[in-house]
From TrEMBL:
In the N-terminal section; belongs to the phytochrome family. The lineage of its organism: Bacteria, Bacillati, Cyanobacteriota, Cyanophyceae, Nostocales. PROSITE patterns: HIS_KIN (PS50109), PAC (PS50113), PAS (PS50112), RESPONSE_REGULATORY (PS50110). GO terms for molecular function: phosphorelay sensor kinase activity. Residues 517-634 form the Response regulatory domain. Its EC number is 2.7.13.3. PANTHER family: HYBRID SIGNAL TRANSDUCTION HISTIDINE KINASE J. Residues 141-186 form the PAS domain. This is Circadian input-output histidine kinase CikA. Keywords: Kinase, Phosphoprotein, Transferase, Two-component regulatory system. The modification 4-aspartylphosphate is found at D566. Residues 261-488 form the Histidine kinase domain. SUPFAM superfamilies: ATPase domain of HSP90 chaperone/DNA topoisomerase II/histidine kinase, CheY-like, Homodimeric domain of signal transducing histidine kinase, PYP-like sensor domain (PAS domain).
């Protein structure tokens, strides 16, 4: 073969052989040996099929090309070297001799190394297969996620990073009454109220707010927001999960109303029992009668504590307990707690002391809840102490700032807390502050209790930014420590130990020292009698009205300094009556209104104050609490002003009319009796 053709074939990376009609090699290129499994057989006059076994059986093909029946024939081969595991892929082309086309006896065999191309093709095929598998996986994954999103009971909305809505699931469309097309591109703030501030403050935390539907309906929802961050900007944004809270809110309201009803229905008779028992204890009784009445009083107070524990626990669990921030005297708070438990300590002969009380220390916080913790711990200490004393101490940090940790300690000489087992070093304190638990069953049987007292103390301490713990020694006593975080406004330090165990008899001279004209508005006859007797014990003679209508008529008949207003009454409740009083009388001429309620549910205090009431007492009413609220009241109407008021709004013998609307019609009643 001439050199030009050889160079051309070499440039094309083609090796060649020329064979005769007997398959004998006539000519071959220099590097063709590298493409054969048996290079030694590729020599002149050797059968080409020995070097390329792929050509065996090609006799008919060779003959057809020689005869001109076909131009060429292609086939593929693989060359494997024993010493090399990597195969060489070759393409073989059988064609007529290019140099001597006239000779039909000789054929040319072109051999090309196509290993690189084959590897690349295999790589492409493998990549295509993998891409196809990935596509199917992504498609299935998308279908899977779409089905999950579609079947979600909660509403789901997806927005861009700037807050424009991109997608929403069927639950969101049903909740908001929009289809996806209508909301696409709209800001999420048009749907969820206050979403921007909630998102920045809470991150992924679930919060409660409202959303507005297409029809304008406001729906309470709880939503959480999560950011979606990917390398592709199109797939970045926020995911909002909305849960319709309508049914839950209705259930909470129904539960609240039910508990309020139970609270009122249970506390009302307890008020009568404990109130009358207290009044009886202040009368001349035989020893047997004294014991009987004491049992009634003790049992009533025990029942009341159980009711209060469950109501407080329910408030805290529902997250409805809100703390007040008002300045109060820390020493007075401890004394208030002592006043409540002093009679029980005196009955058991225990010494109740305040060790080194801080004098004139004013702090900013919730005196009611702090007093509740102290009362619970003091009651427990008295319950489990048979002889000795119960002491309270308070530690205030030396450096005062806005957030001070104030520590309280309630120490007793009682039975202590038993160990788990004989020789065990640890106390069973892990269960002590958990709800519905006691140290052991025998304690429950012997001393009673719901097991909620200390759990409530712990939750209240947590709410006040503090903690609670105990140190105890069996048969020696216990010390319950707790802390609160509060701002100290003014600090003083005392250097004395005060014994506050004292007699709690009613002072009959209060009315002389602090005269007031009192109107009692109460529909329950027993409670009427009981509160009247309490007031009589202080020297007051109160007039009585049975509902809000009668209270308004009585106030038009003569002025009063104080109205003790029951909340739940027939015909007109205390809240409505208070609103009318505030509308009809100016602030400097109207009486001070004190709420009397048997409901201890959350929001009751706020409802009373919102209606215009000035103070608040929870039934059963304790004498000392009643004395405290009455001491806050001042005579606000002189005799001349009262007479002028009577002449303006009341002519005896005519039926008075309510001035504040048509909510009800006035009706004549007998003038209130008593000289107040």
């Amino acid at each position: 073969m001439n050199s030009l053709i050889t160079k051309i074939l070499s440039l094309r990376c083609l090796e060649h052989l020329i064979v005769d009609e007997d398959f004998k090699i006539v000519e071959l290129s220099t590097r063709v040996h590298h493409l054969s499994e048996i290079p030694d057989h590729l020599t002149i006059e050797q059968d080409v099929r020995l070097g390329f076994p792929e050509l065996f059986g090609m006799e008919e093909i060779f003959e057809a090309i020689r005869q001109g029946e076909q131009n060429n024939f292609d086939l593929k081969g693989i060359v494997r070297y024993p010493e090399d595991s990597s195969p060489i892929y070759i393409d073989i082309c059988i064609t007529q001799n290019i140099e001597d086309a006239c000779s039909s006896n000789r054929l040319m065999i072109l051999v090309e190394d196509v290993t690189e191309r084959m590897v690349l093709e295999q790589s492409f095929v493998q990549g295509a297969n993998e891409a196809n598998l990935l596509l199917r996986t992504l498609t299935a994954s998308k279908q899977y996620i779409d089905q999950i999103v579609t079947s979600m009971a909660d509403a789901l909305l997806v927005t861009t990073l700037s807050g424009q809505i991109k997608r929403m699931n069927p639950a969101a469309q049903a909740l908001l009454e929009y289809n996806e097309v209508e909301l696409r591109g709209e800001p999420i703030s048009t749907i969820i109220r206050g979403v921007d501030s909630w998102k920045s403050e809470t991150g992924e935390k679930e919060v409660e707010t409202d959303c507005q539907t297409k029809s304008g309906k406001i729906i309470p929802v709880a939503f959480s927001c999560s950011i979606v961050q990917t390398e592709v900007e199109h797939f970045q944004g926020y995911v909002y999960i909305l849960r319709d809270m309508t049914e839950r809110k209705q259930a909470e309201l129904a539960k609240q109303e039910f508990l309020a009803m139970i609270s009122h229905e249970v506390r009302t008779p307890i008020t009568s029992i404990t109130g009358m028992a207290n009044l009886l204890l202040d009368t001349d009784l035989t020893d047997i009668q004294q014991d009987f009445v004491q049992i009634i009083d003790t049992s009533g107070n025990a029942l009341l504590r159980i009711v209060n524990d469950f109501l407080d626990f329910s408030k805290i669990e529902a997250g409805k307990l809100e703390l007040e921030e008002q300045p109060f005297n820390l020493q007075n708070c401890v004394y208030q707690a002592f006043d409540i438990v002093a009679s029980k300590a005196k009955e058991k002969g225990l010494k109740l002391t305040f060790v080194d009380p801080p004098v004139s220390t004013i702090v900013l916080g919730d005196i009611t809840r702090l007093c509740q913790v102290l009362v619970n711990l003091l009651s427990n200490a008295i319950k489990f102490t048979h002889t000795g004393s119960v002491e309270v101490s308070v530690t205030i940090p030396k450096s005062i700032d806005r957030n001070n940790e104030i520590q309280f300690a309630v120490k007793d000489t009682g039975i202590g807390i038993p160990r788990d087992t004989e020789g065990c070093q640890g106390h069973r304190l892990d269960r002590l502050f958990k709800a519905f638990t006691q140290v052991n069953a025998s304690i429950t049987r012997q001393y009673g209790g719901t097991g909620l007292g200390l759990a409530i103390c712990k939750q209240l301490c947590d709410l006040m930014g503090g903690r609670i713990w105990v140190e105890s020694e069996p048969n020696v006593g216990s010390i319950f420590y707790f802390t609160i975080t509060a701002s100290v406004i003014r600090e003083g330090v005392g250097k004395e130990t005060i014994d506050v165990t004292k007699d709690t008899a009613i002072d009959a001279r209060i009315a002389e020292q602090h005269p007031l004209k009192i109107l009692l508005v109460e529909d329950h006859l027993i409670n009427q009698k009981m509160i009247q007797l309490m007031l009589q014990g202080m020297g007051y003679e109160a007039n009585v009205a049975s509902n809000g209508l009668e209270a308004l008529l009585a106030l038009r008949h003569q002025p009063y300094d104080v109205v003790l207003m029951d909340v739940q009454m027939p015909e007109m409740d205390g809240l409505t009556a208070s609103e009318h009083i505030c509308q009809e009388w100016t602030l400097d001429t109207r009486p001070r209104i004190i709420a009397l309620t048997a409901s201890a549910m959350w929001g009751e205090r706020d409802r009373c104050f919102a209606s215009g009431m000035d103070d608040y007492l929870t039934k059963p009413i304790r004498v000392q609490e009643l004395v405290q609220v009455l001491k806050k009241c001042q005579p606000i109407i002189t005799i001349e002003e009262g007479r002028r008021k009577k002449e303006e709004v009341y002519i005896w013998g005519l039926e008075p009319q309510i001035k504040t609307g048509d909510l009800f019609h006035g009706r004549g009643i007998k003038p209130p009796q008593g000289n107040g």
